[in-house]
Amino acid sequence: PFLRLLEAQLQEQRREHEEEVEALKNEVDVMKEELEKQQQAFLQTLQLSPEAQVEFGLQQEITRLTNENLDLKELLEKLEKNEKKLKKQLKIYMKKVQDFEASQATVPAERRRHERNMQVAVQRKEKDFQGMLEYYKDDEPLLIRNLIT
């Protein structure tokens, strides 16, 4: 059983490794394609006149900035959607707090009566003790429990 478990773990790790290698190969392929496109664009710009090179560079920069702008707009929309959701949740929680506070406003009179009864009960139990206390070691847990209560 132990060897089977190890073999299964090894196969799982091998499978994960192969998937990771495949993903990295795909990423490398995409990067190679992008590099080739950039090299071709660079070679084309070298063949252009200086004015055309400047214009081509400006067009590429405009394209890059436009894509970056679209990404930022998408991020902004996500953040605004999240903000609306959080504001709705905040309103719900604020309503719950107000309802709870309103319900607590009606309870204090009953609670005060209950607390007075408890204080009276506590006062009756209190006594003045002076001196040392003798006890058996076996009775220690019981004594501690009684001291706490």
Q: Key features?
A:
single chain; 149 residues; mainly alpha; 4 helices; 0% strand; elongated; MYO5B protein
Describe what this molecule looks like in 3D.
The structure is a single chain. This protein is elongated. The chain contains four helices and no strands. It is mainly α and 149 residues long. It has helices at 2-47, 50-106, 108-125, 140-148. The two termini are 54 Å apart. The model is unreliable at 120-125 (pLDDT under 50).
Shape: elongated
Q: Nearest-angstrom radius of gyration?
A: 38 Å
Oligomer, anyone?
A: single chain
- Mean pLDDT equals 84
What is the element string, with H for helices and E for strands? HHHH
Strand content: under 5%
Low-confidence segments, given as residue ranges, are: 120-125
Distance between the amino and carboxyl termini? 54 Å
Structural class: mainly alpha
Specify the helix fraction band. over 70%
Main pleated-sheet profile: none
Keywords: Coiled coil
Coiled coil: 3-103
Protein name: MYO5B protein
Organism: Burhinus bistriatus
